[in-house]
Design brief:
Distance between the termini: 38 Å
Number of helices: 13
Shape: globular
Order of helices and strands: HHHHEEHHEHEEEEHHEEEHEEEHHEH
Helix content: 25-40%
Largest sheet: 3 strands, mixed
Length: 338
């Protein structure tokens, strides 16, 4: 018995010494990295699923309850899908949404060196769609498709240069998504505008919003530099000055002031930056004809649905809307960075 144990121990010592001192093959990572990088996988094998779930928590500021709550990652993903995408969408579109939601959460998570939610210190994300991502408790049969989407894509994220991406998404692009820098402050290599065909069936693909001059005055009431003049034609007070390459409004003139299209959309509440104006000076009003719904950057949910109905997988959908990315497991990133 002792002799057998001695043999086993000797073999173990030889194996460990080999891991440190045997020469590396071309293209192989350093010996110490190969050895230590395998250790997380050993520990994962020893832990059960419940313990793994406890390790991966997202700190969510629940806006309605005004408190921070730690939620298991996969439950959180299901809750985001339940909140952000219609339950009746194709399962591949829901899968793409699940992976995007998981990627965004880990991109923001302070556990993975993210900045967290800037509006709510101490939280990774909040449950406001206008700030981070929507979230609702995915309990009940009504959210079974969202739960399945999270389960079927468990631990998968979109990465760029081996890091989770800021996986932005919106309801409908209006036929073409937008470069990030034309809507937000930062240009990102993976958030480039791409065609998004097949969205015409989306209920808000085209929309119209009428605004009286008094509505516009109210919308810009907190900006003392913006002045609308009653009894002066609105057609002389509003003018589109420039467009992005995709045709979205980049800058608009209000009186003598130049206003970014993003700010104008936020103030007026129109559906998108794809818009044209039709004036009714006699009634002191303007009609905004919009195409698409949302900021237009990243994954288009309507486009994802169209691609899914054509037989495309969730991975193909993600690779289309996010440029130069890879779909990986969370574990792969941890092991490679160990």
């Amino acid at each position: 018995m002792k002799k057998g144990l001695y043999v086993v121990f000797s073999l173990l010592v030889v194996a460990l010494l080999s891991a440190f001192f045997l020469p590396e093959r071309a293209g192989e990572v350093s010996t110490d990295k190969r050895f230590f990088a395998s250790m997380p996988s050993l520990f994962y094998m020893e832990n059960d699923d419940d313990e793994l779930e406890e390790e991966r928590q997202i700190k969510v500021y629940l806006n309605e309850e005004e408190r921070i709550c730690s939620i298991p990652l996969e439950k959180y993903v299901a809750g985001v899908v339940a909140s952000e995408m219609p339950a009746g969408f194709h399962h591949e579109a829901l899968g793409a949404q699940a992976v995007a939601a998981r990627s965004y959460a880990l991109f923001k998570s302070q556990l993975y060196s993210g900045e967290g939610c800037l509006m709510h210190p101490g939280a990774d994300v909040c449950s406001s769609p206008g700030c981070c991502q929507g979230y609702r408790d995915p309990g009940g049969d009504i959210y079974k498709n969202a739960i399945k989407a999270a389960k079927d894509t468990e631990n998968l994220i979109v990465t760029f240069r081996n890091h989770p991406i800021r996986a932005l998404y919106h309801a409908c692009s209006g036929g073409h998504t937008e470069n990030a820098e034309n809507v937000f402050s930062q240009a990102l290599a993976y958030l480039r505008g791409v065609p998004s065909p097949g969205e015409e069936g989306y209920e808000r693909y085209e929309n119209r919003k009428n605004m009286h001059i008094t509505d516009l005055i109210e919308a810009f009431s907190d900006d003392e530099n913006i002045v609308f003049y009653m009894d002066y034609p609105l057609s002389e007070q509003l003018e589109i000055l420039s467009l992005t390459d995709t045709g979205r409004v980049q800058e608009i003139r209000i009186g003598l002031n130049r206003v970014p299209g993003t700010e104008f959309r936020k103030k007026t509440g129109i559906d998108s930056l794809f818009f044209q104006m039709e004036f009714d000076d006699e009634n002191e009003s303007v009609a905004f004809y919009t195409r698409g719904y949302g900021h237009g950057v990243g994954l288009s949910q309507a486009g994802a649905q169209a691609m899914a109905l054509e037989g495309r997988t969730f991975e193909e959908i993600l690779m289309h809307y996010y440029s130069g990315v890879q779909v990986k497991r969370v574990d792969e990133i941890f092991i490679e960075e160990a």
